[in-house]
Design a protein that fits this description.
This protein is mainly alpha-helical and 197 residues long. 70% of the residues lie in helices and 0% in strands. The termini are far apart.
Length: 197
């Protein structure tokens, strides 16, 4: 279906670029490819972007907002307890087609970040922001700052692993795995041994 140039928004270009990134690679995210996908001329791209670099920066910003800031904002507005938030985070990799699409985009960005400083910096910021948020959830449950940070890293590593290893195990095995991780992460820490004076 043809899209009239003045009906396209920067978001349309960013969405098309993100789909090409997900399905191919960052190398395929080029103005001529996107113009063909959107069925418009190359010139219409420059109504919205200075150049390809401008598009790439907005792609990363859009991904950060959708995959991190909007999720954190939604969780914060829900009024859920920290324990409920952690359980919700553990469920994110299992949210059907939406989770699969998000995981595919994130994996493509992680691949891009292996050889591009712009993407690497954006990815490091997103990882740090997510880890900081999850750390605060564990701190709110009474864990020390150091232990909350360790548990947050375990939870985040588990979420990334479920995205990478999506086909490993039956649905029942995946559920059992998630429940085991949830139980382990929320288990109070063992009493530290007393030291003699």
């Amino acid at each position: 279906m043809s899209v009239i140039r003045n009906q396209l928004t920067p978001a349309d270009w960013v969405a098309a670029a993100t789909h090409v990134l997900r399905d191919q690679s960052i190398d395929a995210v080029r103005v001529d490819v996107l113009a063909k996908v959107l069925n418009v001329t190359r010139g219409s791209f420059y109504w919205h972007f200075k150049d390809r670099q401008d598009l790439l920066e907005r792609m990363l910003t859009g991904w950060r907002d959708a995959a991190t800031e909007q999720i954190i904002h939604r969780f914060e507005k829900s009024g859920a307890t920290p324990q409920m938030l952690i359980k919700e985070l553990l469920l994110l990799p299992f949210r059907g087609q939406s989770a699969q699409n998000s995981a595919a985009i994130e994996l493509a960005i992680r691949e891009w970040a292996r050889r591009d400083d712009l993407a690497r910096q954006a990815l490091e910021q997103v990882d740090a922001q997510r880890l900081a948020y999850v750390t605060r959830c564990f701190e709110a449950l009474g864990f020390s700052a150091a232990e909350a940070k360790q548990r947050a890293f375990m939870l985040y590593g588990y979420m990334l692993s479920e995205s990478l290893l999506r086909t490993q195990g039956t649905p029942e095995e995946c559920q059992a795995r998630r429940q085991f991780v949830e139980h382990t992460l929320l288990q109070p820490s063992a009493q530290a041994p007393q030291t003699s004076a």
